[in-house]
Design goal:
113 residues, alpha+beta, Alpha-Beta Plaits, two-stranded antiparallel sheet, 26% helix
């Protein structure tokens, strides 16, 4: 099995979900993670805070969030899959789509030192 990272991207919403809608979404996330865990594919998952800093090559620091960005990375899930196709199939059942977000699936690069 190989390691893959799913990055969750979304745009700021004009009409954020109601508390009831948020609870329903959280239940879907719990079910999705439980299914991944049951299949031995779940490694980790976290939401990301909207604050942060960016370090440029010249050493300058910019505070976030970054107003010039259209999309924000809001979180990630780390999974195990046979290949990119299988990891992408797992992403298709992810509740991120309920929130109108995008999922980027990337394989970890393995370096032999």
């Amino acid at each position: 099995m190989k390691d893959f990272l799913m990055l969750f991207r979304s745009e700021p919403q004009e009409n954020p979900p109601s508390p009831e809608q948020l609870q329903a979404m959280l239940k879907e996330w719990e079910k999705w993670h439980a299914e991944l865990e049951k299949n031995g594919q779940f490694v980790a998952s976290e939401a990301l805070n909207y604050s942060g800093r960016q370090l440029a090559p010249d050493g300058s620091v910019t505070d976030g969030p970054y107003a010039e960005l259209k999309e924000l990375v809001g979180g990630f899930t780390w999974v195990k899959a046979v290949d990119l196709d299988q990891a992408f199939e797992l992403a298709k059942s992810c509740p991120m789509h309920m929130m109108g977000g995008h999922i980027e699936v990337r394989e970890f690069e393995v370096f032999d030192y």
